[in-house]
Amino acid sequence: MSRFFSSRYANAEPYKPGEQPKGQTVVLKLNTNENPFPPSPRAIAAAAEAAGRVNIYNDHMCRDLKAAASEYFGLPAENIMFGNGSDENLDFAIRAFADDGFPLIFPDITYSFYETLAGLHSLPQVVVPLAEDFSLRLEDYRGLKGMVLIANPNAPTGLARSRAEMEAFIAEDPERLVLVDEAYVDFGNESCVPLVSKYDNLIVTMTFSKSRSMAGARLGISFACKELIDDMEIIRNSGNPYNVNSMTSAMGAAILQDDEYTRKNCAEICRVRGWFSGELRALGFNVLDSRTNFVLARTDKIGGKELYEALKARGILIRHFNQERIKDYNRISIGTEEQMKLLLENIKEVLK
Ligand SMILES: Cc1ncc(COP(=O)(O)O)c(C=O)c1O
After folding, report:
1. Nearest residue by C-alpha to atom 3 in ligand 1
2. Among 1.10.3720.10, 3.20.20.150, 3.40.50.2300, 3.90.1150.10, what is the CATH number of 19-38+260-351?
3. For labelling, which of 48, 267, 306, 335 has a CA lying 20 to 30 Å from the CA of 297?
């Protein structure tokens, strides 16, 4: 650290992304919940077309993309905004609404970027433990004032609450701001987006990284009432108004118009998840009931870190979290059936 580094960031603890293969031969990469299928051919064509026009600035309000999203999600454009990935939208929301008197409130086991952002902005945090079985007990948040961050489905557990449960929670205290992070919603859960027009204390975020195969293009979407969106737009437009580039914007609109492609891929990933979970259970693993494109699993036969390391030595990356309550587990992204078969063969060999 240089002597010029601002004391404002004294509490910053950079996020640790899943490993990106470097050097060694990686046979299987199942550690960052990427989609095994390429983006829709229509989205690729749209990006190529947009690339020919990058001599002019992109539309900083993403109007075409917003129109496509407005039609797809059935909400007016004023209730929608975009970020350079969901992570950026989370940052906009946290910067806009949390402060010393309005803490961030989130579960002990959840997406670790919430804690990263809390540190970056030196925000007070209230951490609420999940139940013993890793389920989210919404009643434990009763009486807490601040901005609640709920990944639904949660990561890395994969467990989810229904829309009705979330609605009761949002309605229970209008002074509490609830951000529902729906990064994995397309893999089997109900979205809270339809609640946005009913509640002015709700923000829903989604990403195009998972169900829409656009992780490397960086596109996230936020939904909220107009007032909340306007506040977050102040933050966005005061930093980098051109945050979503033309290629990404064009891809996003095209993929929303090619929903059949997304639905087909999600259905296949869910099918493989069901089959793979069954196979793991047959090997003696405890597998949480996932509504996402990953599973969290453990076995008494080998420690979480040991399994992760043994597979890594074979060129297979899965995710191990060195965190107290989940250190015996591994998070495994769902790839194609062929990839998961190869993984299973390797797990069986390691267990021998
Ligand atoms: C719960 C959750 N929210 C948000 C994100 C970030 O998504 P994006 O790639 O759009 O920044 C992730 C990524 O893994 C995630 O797991």
Report:
1. 183
2. 3.90.1150.10
3. 267
